[in-house]
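Me: Here is a favour to ask of a fellow structure person. Could you put it straight underneath, so I can go through it closely?

Assistant:
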Amino acid sequence: MTEPKTILDPAQAKMDKAIEFLVEALASVRAGKASTNLLNGITVDYYGNPTPISQVASVTVPDARTVLIQPWEKNLIGAIEKAILVANIGLTPSNNGEHIRLNIPPLTEERRKELVKQIKSEAETARISIRNIRRDAVEAFKKAQKEGMPEDMAKDGEDSSQKLTDKYMKKVDELFAAKEAEIMTV
């Protein structure tokens, strides 16, 4: 007989992954403040291999409006600069031959609203994935009931998966609200 734990534990693990994914997606959204996360996902050609910028240079945030990139090899400056331009993150790198500086302009009201729409869509994607995980868990309980799980145990399992879903939906809402407040703060 299937134990409710064997259905709920994988569902919770999947919901944790959905939250992790949302956290990463929100971190990559520029909120008008400098962050080393801006360069996540941008790779530079390093001896024929696509390599993340953070692995070929020191990336620091000297102040709230600047990201400073100091390549470990001077010949990489041009490649890093080109990679940032190609990534189309809305920033123009300026280099002085030793390091690259990214100045973060203050966000306009219109751009803030666009960013809120973008994070709202990321949050909705997370909610959909959590609801799909709940649906799969509920179906697994119904299947287990047909295979001999007592009805009350299956119903308790379905209730538990709903409680789990509610808990994770609340997390999504909290993450969204925090990021929205960060973006809308001038």
